[in-house]
Design a protein that fits this description.
single chain; mainly alpha; about 0% strand; binds protoporphyrin IX containing FE
């Protein structure tokens, strides 16, 4: 059995179910409360303010999964686990799933579907402005997450999906700004985001420096260096599949 088959056939469905667990747990709690079963553990977990608890749980899982999605590439490269790539789209879509539910919960349950009040909040409360902007950035990424969109957009797809970095930063800011006293938790999330984005920034600087070096090397070799240039091209070709994998879209 190939590692690819194992990952797709067995590990992916397990990861799928794990990602779904918080939503199932919340749904069970809400159903139990609605049917008056106050003593079930799922209902008790929603505490004294279930509306706020559901809102917060959806938000925190959205942020966690967004950061896990961003961690896939560094873990793949540093840990040498190429198969991790197979999970990235699913994780990203789950992050969007929780964030969209978080937004819809706010709109329908908290604001009773009052768009005017929602936009008032977006304008007046900076943490909602940050959260809403992050959500808006994620919408085109979710819409273009299909293979077809990837093929149609080509390299533009990669550029578009860099929006995920801004969304992660805004998500952390949103969390930070709403905390009144103890900033330890948002600080941890912000530090993880900074680490993941910092790693990407460094890698892109290294790549750029490498490309410039290769260019200036080819220039200084001049016509006599043709044989070497040929060798370079050959080795670049043999590196191409790996490079293609490394160059895959961000997130
Ligand atoms: C990328 C987008 C977003 C992320 C990652 C995110 C994440 C979070 C997190 C982590 C929390 C705190 C959870 C906790 O305290 O345990 C939270 C709370 C909250 N978020 Fe978001 N959020 C996002 C977008 C939005 C949007 C679009 C809205 C509404 C327009 C919104 C409204 C709220 C509200 C009202 C709270 C609760 C504040 C409170 O408990 O006082 N969020 N969000």
């Amino acid at each position: 059995m190939s590692p690819d088959y194992l990952a797709r056939r067995y590990v992916k469905p397990i990861v799928f179910l794990l990602c779904l667990l918080p939503a199932i747990w919340l749904a069970l709690g809400i159903l139990a409360l609605q049917s008056g079963n106050m003593n079930s553990s799922a209902a008790l977990a929603l505490g004294a303010n279930p509306v706020e608890k559901v809102q917060d749980t959806l938000g925190i899982w959205g942020l966690r999964l967004l950061l896990v999605t961003l961690a896939v590439t560094p873990l793949r490269v540093l840990g040498g686990w190429p198969k991790l790539q197979l999970f990235r789209r699913m994780l990203g879509l789950f992050a969007f799933f929780y964030i969209a539910l978080h937004f819809l919960w706010y709109l329908f349950v908290d604001q009773a579907f009052n768009w005017g009040q929602l936009f008032g909040d977006v304008v007046k409360r900076p943490y909602i402005t940050a959260g809403f902007s992050a959500f808006l950035l994620l919408v085109p990424l979710a819409v273009t997450s299909t293979q077809r969109a990837m093929r149609r957009l080509g390299r533009r797809w990669q550029k578009l999906h860099r929006l995920v970095y801004a969304a992660a930063i805004l998500g952390c800011v949103h969390y930070w700004w709403q905390v009144k006293a103890d900033i330890r938790e948002p600080l941890i999330y912000a530090a993880i985001a900074a680490l993941l984005l910092g790693w990407r920034g460094l890698r892109s600087l290294q790549r750029r420096a490498g490309a410039q070096q290769a260019q200036s090397g080819a220039r200084t070799r001049g016509p006599g260096g043709e044989r070497d240039a040929g060798k370079d091209q050959e080795s670049a070709r043999s590196r191409a599949p790996v490079q293609r994998l490394a160059d895959q879209p961000p997130a």
